[in-house]
Write a structure and sequence with these properties.
The protein is built from nine helices and no strands. With 203 residues, the protein is mostly helical. The model has no long low-confidence stretch (mean pLDDT 87).
Length: 203
């Protein structure tokens, strides 16, 4: 009879499997990856994987939910420590500098989420929820800036938020296709300059 493991150990294994899946998907891509690949990355048995997840798709969806929750919580905590709405936006933009290997892994898998959402209503729903959360937070920061005079009052906060995310997601796509990292960081800084000028010129 196999020894019983504690709830803490079960959760640790589940987390390990999700992080192993992230490594696997970022290296091979979602469509090319198999459960056997995830097993090799995790160094656990195939049976162990199926104790926690029914399929590769279920692993993918749980990974998306996990990363979405972590990202929102971490960003919300960090932004709450910054008083100025403009500085909050600058911090958010600069989060992708320096451009680390860890960020690159997550960016690639996130773009896979975008692509896979056309085949999976569940993934699409999670992505829409995530975007609504992030878009709403961006709009709220811009509106706060307008109230205290940091941002022009005649700016359409919704349109400005759309601009923010169009620039941000475009940079992420460049990152995934292997765009030169030095140029990528320069693009991020230029995004900051363009956005802040747009929001504050003659504010």
């Amino acid at each position: 009879m196999a020894p019983r493991i504690s709830d803490e150990e079960k959760e640790a294994r589940r987390e390990h499997l999700l992080e192993s899946a992230l490594e696997c998907f970022s290296a091979k891509g979602y469509y090319a990856s198999t459960v056997d690949d995830i097993v090799r990355y995790s160094n656990l048995s195939k049976g162990s994987v199926y104790n926690y997840f029914k399929s590769k798709e279920e692993i993918f969806i749980h990974l998306l939910q996990k990363k979405r929750q972590e990202m929102v919580e971490e960003l919300t905590i960090k932004l709450a420590k910054i008083d100025s709405p403009l500085e909050k936006l600058k911090y958010w933009i600069r989060e992708d500098i320096p451009y680390s290997l860890e960020k690159k892994k997550f960016m690639r898998v996130h773009v896979e989420f975008w692509l896979y959402s056309t085949d999976s209503p569940e993934v699409q729903h999670i992505l829409v929820e995530r975007f609504d959360d992030m878009f709403g937070l961006t709009k709220e920061i811009i509106e706060q800036g307008q109230k205290i005079g940091e941002i022009k009052p005649d700016i359409d906060a919704e349109a400005a938020s759309s601009m923010f995310w169009s620039l941000h997601d475009g940079i992420w796509l460049h990152a995934v296709i292997g765009y030169d990292e030095t140029k990528l960081e320069a693009s991020i800084k230029e995004m900051e300059s363009v956005l802040i000028t747009y929001l504050t010129a003659n504010a």
